[in-house]
Hints:
Elements: H1 2-18, E1 23-25, E2 32-34, E3 74-77, E4 82-88, E5 94-95, E6 101-109, E7 113-119, E8 125-127, E9 131-135, E10 138-149, E11 156-166, E12 169-179
Parallel strand pairs: 5-12
Antiparallel strand pairs: 1-2, 3-4, 4-6, 6-10, 7-8, 7-11, 9-10, 11-12
Amino acid sequence: MRALWLILLLVVVVAVSSGSMLGFVFSEGVSVITAPRIVLSPTPVPSAFTSTPPTASPTPTPNPTATPTLDSAAEGSFGGKGYFKITSPTGDGLYDGGNLTLTIRGEAIDQSLTMAYSIDRQEKIPFGATVKQAHDWDKFFGIITVSEALPPLPSGLHTLTVYGYLANVSAQANVDFIVA
């Protein structure tokens, strides 16, 4: 009996999937079961060769709810090995040309680091910079902190470029600033 039900189920599945009308006759008790005909209305399918192109619905324009804040620090990236930022001078202040300090902060893998700066695209001047281990438990990650006095500068607009070389990867950051 179980095999008969499995066969019946298989026949019904095949019949329903093909959409034809079936009549089943069982040998026990001569029962006639007629499955109703399932008629599917055809769904129009767009042709790939239509003469009119499909029209796109208009895309809504987003309304920003917050004004983004810009990071005024110029940044140089060593890719996955780290970065540094020029935190002083920045482009949003006036500076005393006789008392100016270059300040850099960053994070990097703990490897050999060399740095230099150039003012107004002049010669590169090397300065001391190291990556110091950030935590006793992490000997691979370090912090870059530099504070270097810059030479006296005349009044006007100046460009400072900082170059960094870490584990055979170079990076640079630029900042324009005004000396009063």
